[in-house]
Amino acid sequence: MEQSNLKNLAGWLIVVIVLGGLPVAIFWYQASRTGAEFHQVLRQARGRALQFRTGLENYPDSLEEEREKIEFLVAQPIGLPFQQPPMISFVLPFDLDADGLMDVLVADCANDWVSWIRQYPTGNFTETVLCEGLRAPAHLEVVDFNQDGAPDILVACLGMLFPNNDPIGSVVVLENVGQQRFRPRVILDKVPRVADARAGDLNGDGLLDVAVAHFGYDDGETRWLENLGNWQFRDHVLQTLSGPIHCPIVDLDADNLLDIVVIVSQEWEQLWVYKNLGRGKFKKILLFDCENEDFGSSGIWIVDLNQDGRPDILYTNGDAFDYIPPRPRPWHGIQWLENLGGMQFRFHRIAHIPGAVNAVVFDVNGDQHLDIIVASAYNTWEDPAAQSLVWLENLGNMRFRMRPLANRPTHIQGLAAADFNNDGTMDLVTGGLHTYPPYDRMERVVVWWNRWDQLDKAGR
Question: What does the alpha-carbon distance between residue 30 and residue 163 come to, in Å, rounded to a whole number?
Answer without folding.
Answer: 22
